[in-house]
Amino acid sequence: MAISRRWTSLAATPLVLLLAVTGCSPSGSSSPEPAPGAPAATSAGHGAPRAEGSTTGTSRVPRRFRHLLPGMPPVIDRDVYARTGPADLSQRVRRQPALVYVPDSMPGGSSVTVISQRTRRVVRTLPVGLLSQHVVPSYDLRHLYTNSSVSNELVEIDPRTGRVAAHLPVPRPYNLYFTPDGRQAVVMVEEHDVIRFSDPETFHRRDDLRVPACRGPNHADFSANGRFMVISCEFSGALVKVSTLGHRVLGVLHLGPTSMPQDVRLSPDGGTFYVADMGTDEVRLVRGSRFRQVARIATPSDPHGLYPSRDGRRLYVSDRGAGRVSVVSFRSRRIVDTWTIPGGGSPDMGGVSANGKVLWLSGRYDSEVYAFDTSTGRLLARIPVPGSPHGLSVWPQPGRYSLGHTGNMR
After folding, report:
1. How far is the C-alpha of 168 from the C-alpha of 153, rounded, in Å?
2. Assuming Cys at both sites, which of 66, 198, 213, 265 could form a disulfide with 306, CB separation 3.0 to 4.6 Å?
3. What sign for the dihedral angle of Cα 268, 371, 117, 365?
4. d(C-alpha 108, C-alpha 6), whole Å
């Protein structure tokens, strides 16, 4: 888990191409079916109608969009977030209550606090396992899973009712992801330095990957074609590039002795991974193809979470040690705005509301949750919650499918 100094001392935005690219899957067959619950082909992700179709099969398409992972939904208009705009709530989640799920990551914490997005008040407290880290949407958008590390379980929440539905045994789950084809779950067993590939429904183990250079596998994101993932290794100051199908290490990028990489998020154009480095107070930009750092953005203290805006133009960076949020332009790769919590705070992890108007973040060391107006940066609410709130999930969110974490939607 992320350890702050406070406690230890106690690519440019993609141009929307007007050419609607159609093509075929790598095998030459028709494009794979969209994930369950996908919106209709006429849904508008970022404002214009989107044409379905794989982006493979033409030399004019960048390599990063070719040879899609078999079975994954197609990338639209060369924009990995094209179907995560306000108009893209799937039929499966459209009638689900708009809630915020806040896990308590204190060693003795055993609850998820549920907040109404409308009233910004606590509506109930759910009993879950000890040391709950993140609340994660399933690939098919049917379930939410609380990663309860000390209890060695995933606690399933039914998003239709906002209540606990089941308990699934999983050793020391810290974070949870799903491959873009929906056929594998990836559990970050941070405590034991294990990247576990599992059945996405039962979570029975299929394969364990241990990388000597990766201590504390933590957060991740997948390439535009789904063929590999980039994983942050918090306690060894490194990133690892792992193949989705073969579970092989494709590369290791050492970031330095003071590095403590956290959240990872792919740029809309699919070319660059943004990595929040809490140890060096910067967001690192890493080219996925060559797996090397190409730029950096200096930030205030302890950058931790990364969340794209609903229009795909900006990236919200939670600066946990500074009590601020840095707003980064994908186009200029610069901070264009800074939101400050009056009186200070510790913004950590969270997500953006379905309509894009509110950014919700947990206050890791202040036992509260923050709600920011994304148009002005004004703090709308700070809501008291128990213990040490961590990887809160805002639900429902737009998208065809979930890659996991607190809502990495595509």
Report:
1. 5
2. 265
3. positive
4. 20
